[in-house]
Amino acid sequence: MGILDSKVPTGPLADKWTNHKNHIDLVNPANKRNIDIIVVGTGLAGGSAAATLAELGYNVKTFCYQDSPRRAHSIAAQGGVNAAKNYQGDGDSVYRLFYDTVKGGDYRSREANVYRLAQVSTNIIDQCVAQGVPFAREYGGLLDNRSFGGVLVSRTFYAKGQTGQQLLLGAYAAMNRQIQRGKIKSHTRHEMLDLVLVDGKARGIIARDLVTGEIERHSAHAVVLATGGYGNLFFLSTYCMGANVMAAWRAHRRGAFMANPCFTQIHPTCIPVSGDHQSKLTLMSESLRNDGRIWVPKRLEDAQAIREGKLKPTQLGEGERDYYLERRYPAFGNLVPRDVASRAAKERCDAGFGVNKTGEAVYLDFDAAIMRYGREKALTSGMKDADDTTVRQLGEEVVEAKYGNLFDMYEKIVDQNPYKTPMMIYPAVHYTMGGLWVDYNLQTTIPGCYAAGEANFSDHGANRLGASALMQGLADGYFVLPYTIGDYLSDDIRTGAIPTDSPEFDAAEADTRSRLEKLMSGKGTHSVDYYHKKLGKIMWNKCGMSRNAKELQEAIDEIAELRADFWENVRVPGTADTKNQELEKAGRVADFLELGELFAKDALTRNESCGGHFREEYQTPEGEALRDDENFKFVSAWEYKGAPKDAVLHKEQLVYENIELKTRSYK
């Protein structure tokens, strides 16, 4: 345990995955019936993995804290899923998807993993169409595509603004088939509280029934963690309220290295914060940047007047608007990668050009798109001389067909009609590129413990391109893990069932009960949310869109102090042996308080800027990220040694044999 061996196959990049599959060990179908696998998390990665593993013949046990697997946070994904199908004939290819992903991640991801992701992306669409996922289609009946940030092609398949929901329903239906066959035992409203190791191998979990409070033991020959990201570390994020790091952090404490924890994605198109009353933020899909133009007023006095309610954005003409992304990045315009767009918005708002009451918002304007689509629709409908009113009406109908549910959601939250006035947006925490370190087989540094989807670090480097989260989750679950896990399980065909009455399970359950008792024994000065909000403000202010050495060190000290106060003074009402949602939150926030310090420590040790990790000391004269490939071309993999301050850094050096490292440019 604890040795960084990426297990990347030898040979040409394009042949690595095929050759690897040809030579790894397999499990006989008759033997699969005798092997148990636990899958924690039932989103796109976990749901697709569970369904596929059960279809292969393994006995699968799934766990999720929601009341149904179909409520996983994957359901909230809006814009689409990438695949190198080249349906548009615009020059896309497997290599171009691979290149865009590595470049988009600012050259901080593992080449072999990313190329495999691009290869299997083409299979994802066929699989999901066969499951009945209602992807959008163009007039001729072929699947439609749109573009996302950081690319010059259209490779994103979508189902209006509900792509995640439709894909998850496909995986859920596949899961249900296996549940009916008895090959999947679904444990809903259960939370994993610890990972159990027997002879150094992952052999089960300790879980809590969130309805009864009962502590349960579950054994298996391997454990798959597919529990998503840790963005709720920041309190305000686009994640669902229950998203947490507990499963991954429990595995980390048992020996799984945590990789690149400071690599967090800030999404540029979220509904801005409106006050301290909020508990989460709402995403507006990146797909809107296909047609929406982002701008702020050119003059400070106009921005001030808008903030004071004396001026409306529709009263400013084209010459009075600063389309700053189009100005700064003419080649990509409004479709630059998320980290670039987010920092640009922050820069404009910090300079005083923000347009809401807090000064932290920019406009996303659809007026030009509405009129463009309206004129096209008028012409194709035989209206050669349609007036502007008719053109606008026709254009709004086209935009509604493409983005209607997103526009409706915005209007319900903000109480403004985005067809008539520009949307207001601002960056927010949306995804975590960091996660458990895994090798080419998706196995962590603990034998038998695998991590899939957002729970691992493997594919996105320092910044994720839009529509690649769904791609990675489905690739890992449907097409990678079911192959690679067999290589490990082939040694277990004679092992037999794993007993749960062993000393290792006894010790893990005792640790879990002790921790719950400690959470319940606080003096009761403050609520769990009190600590979570305080942590979130530290993280956003000092570890957010920009970071510097002084504030990162302050964050480390403040989080350590906050964590000590939490364990002494948190108030958790009720008891541990029944349904207790405050206890659930307390356990999750306790882990965030450890992860937050490691996050800041990781950011402090990486003396460069790359992707979403922007150190103010390391930037170009134009304010762009300044990488240091000579000293920081590696994955930071942290080994647990007790307190976060004692964590030990291991480095996986990144080797680029097929891509030339150069400064990212979207100009």
TrEMBL record:
Keywords: Cell membrane, Electron transport, FAD, Flavoprotein, Membrane, Oxidoreductase, Transport. Its cofactor is FAD. InterPro entries: FAD-dep_OxRdtase_2_FAD-bd (IPR003953), FAD/NAD-bd_sf (IPR036188), Fum_R/Succ_DH_flav-like_C_sf (IPR037099), Fum_Rdtase/Succ_DH_flav-like_C (IPR015939), SdhA/FrdA/AprA (IPR030664), Succ_DH/Fum_Rdt_flav_su (IPR011280), Succ_DH/fumarate_Rdtase_cat_sf (IPR027477). Its main location: membrane. Pfam families: FAD_binding_2, Succ_DH_flav_C. Residues 36-470 form the FAD-dependent oxidoreductase 2 FAD-binding domain. It is found in: Cell membrane. Residues 532-666 form the Fumarate reductase/succinate dehydrogenase flavoprotein-like C-terminal domain. The keyword Manganese does not apply. Its EC number is 1.3.5.1. It is a peripheral membrane protein. It is an enzyme of class 1 (oxidoreductase). GO terms for cellular component: plasma membrane. One of its GO terms (molecular function) is flavin adenine dinucleotide binding. The active site is at R338 (proton acceptor). It catalyses: a quinone + succinate = fumarate + a quinol. SUPFAM superfamilies: FAD/NAD(P)-binding domain, Succinate dehydrogenase/fumarate reductase flavoprotein C-terminal domain, Succinate dehydrogenase/fumarate reductase flavoprotein, catalytic domain. GO terms for biological process: anaerobic respiration. Belongs to the FAD-dependent oxidoreductase 2 family. FRD/SDH subfamily. PANTHER family: SUCCINATE DEHYDROGENASE 2 FLAVOPROTEIN SUBUNIT, SUCCINATE DEHYDROGENASE FLAVOPROTEIN SUBUNIT. This is succinate dehydrogenase. It comes from Aggregatimonas sangjinii.
